[in-house]
């Protein structure tokens, strides 16, 4: 089977199985890189060693993160199982050790600095929507005008990760900014649109955040997704029940949400140090 035929069949199968647009895009990107790597080897039949060499290349040369490596493995497994209809190679039947790292979180003071450093109304609207509702970048990009309800003060997040719908709160402060933005830019379908009226580019949002982070003189290794981490952590700091936070974030498992208990100051500050009970000069 030729390369383009594999890609076409792969795309069709993902669509038939109702995978989300974002997952299809990620899987296809990983597949194309794998096929290019194999193509350079000029081999007729892919062996276990070549797959292992590719995974080693991704980890050591491309420096892929845990989540990216997991997507690479899943995409190749999907190729064998659902497209080529072959047995999954043993080299893909492995369990990655998840790094025990905590998410980077911005303080409320740092969030204010970022917003103060953002002069462009569209850019400010983007960052406010992500932080105030804990949105993923893809969810922000796909928000349509009808998804914001000023009567119920809710945002309808449609087909988020795992193709799940959910509702999140709409901040009154954010609604005011969104209204000013709408009057200025007059978007037609999506809340945030590019110059030609289509969806805004994820790379553009990332560039905006990177630039404003530098302007605000914040040295933390933060990304757009850090705003979502900060949303969850700040809710926990304010005493919000973690099960509500799970629903707002759209997490399938509570364990995923519980990582924020490790970076929240709420539970830590409630515990008294044993040194507080000592009396000494």
Keywords:
single chain, 281 residues, mainly alpha, DNA polymerase, domain 1, hpI Integrase, Chain A, three-stranded antiparallel beta sheet, 13 helices, globular
In short:
The protein has 281 residues and is mainly alpha-helical.
Q: Helical residue percent?
A: 40-55%
Estimate the mean pLDDT confidence. Answer: 88
Largest sheet: 3 strands, antiparallel
CATH architecture of the largest domain: Orthogonal Bundle
Number of separate helices = 13
Q: Indicate how many domains the architecture comprises.
A: 2
Could you name the CATH homologous superfamily of the largest domain? Answer: Intergrase catalytic core
The H-and-E topology, N to C, reads as HHHHHHHEEEHHHHHH
Q: Which strand order do you get reading across the main beta sheet?
A: 1-2-3
Give a verbal description of the structure:
This protein is mainly alpha-helical. The chain contains 13 helices and three strands; from the N terminus they run αααααααβββαααααα. Strands 1-2-3 form a three-stranded antiparallel sheet.
SSE map:
Blueprint: H1 3-16, H2 21-41, H3 48-60, H4 66-83, H5 108-116, H6 121-133, H7 137-141, E1 148-149, E2 154-157, E3 166-169, H8 172-185, H9 202-215, H10 224-237, H11 242-249, H12 254-257, H13 265-270
Antiparallel strand pairs: 1-2, 2-3
Helix pairs in contact: 1-2, 2-4, 6-8, 6-10
């Amino acid at each position: 089977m030729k390369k383009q035929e594999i890609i076409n069949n792969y795309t069709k199968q993902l669509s038939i199985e109702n995978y989300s647009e974002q997952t299809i895009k990620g899987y296809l990107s990983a597949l194309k890189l794998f096929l290019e790597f194999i193509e350079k080897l000029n081999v007729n039949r892919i062996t276990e060693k070549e797959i292992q060499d590719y995974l080693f290349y991704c980890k050591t040369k491309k420096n892929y993160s845990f989540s990216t490596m997991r997507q690479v493995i899943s995409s190749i497994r999907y190729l064998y199982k659902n497209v080529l209809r072959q047995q999954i190679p043993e080299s893909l039947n492995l369990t990655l050790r998840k790094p025990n790292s905590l998410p980077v979180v911005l303080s409320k003071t740092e969030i204010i600095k970022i917003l103060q450093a953002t002069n462009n109304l569209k850019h400010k609207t983007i960052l406010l929507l992500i932080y105030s509702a804990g949105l993923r970048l893809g969810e922000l990009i796909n928000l349509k005008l009808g998804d914001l309800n000023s009567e119920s003060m809710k945002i309808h997040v449609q087909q988020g990760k795992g193709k799940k719908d959910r509702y999140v709160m709409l901040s009154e402060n954010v609604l005011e900014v969104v209204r000013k933005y709408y009057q200025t830019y007059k978007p037609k379908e999506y809340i945030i649109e590019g110059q030609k009226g289509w969806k805004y580019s994820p790379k553009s949002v990332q560039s905006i955040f990177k630039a404003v982070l530098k302007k605000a003189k914040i040295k933390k290794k933060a990304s757009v997704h850090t705003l979502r981490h900060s949303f969850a952590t700040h809710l926990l700091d304010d005493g919000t029940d973690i099960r509500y936070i799970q629903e707002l974030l759209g997490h399938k498992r509570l364990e995923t949400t519980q990582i924020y208990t490790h970076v929240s100051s709420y539970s830590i500050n409630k515990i008294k140090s044993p040194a507080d009970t000592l009396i000494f000069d």
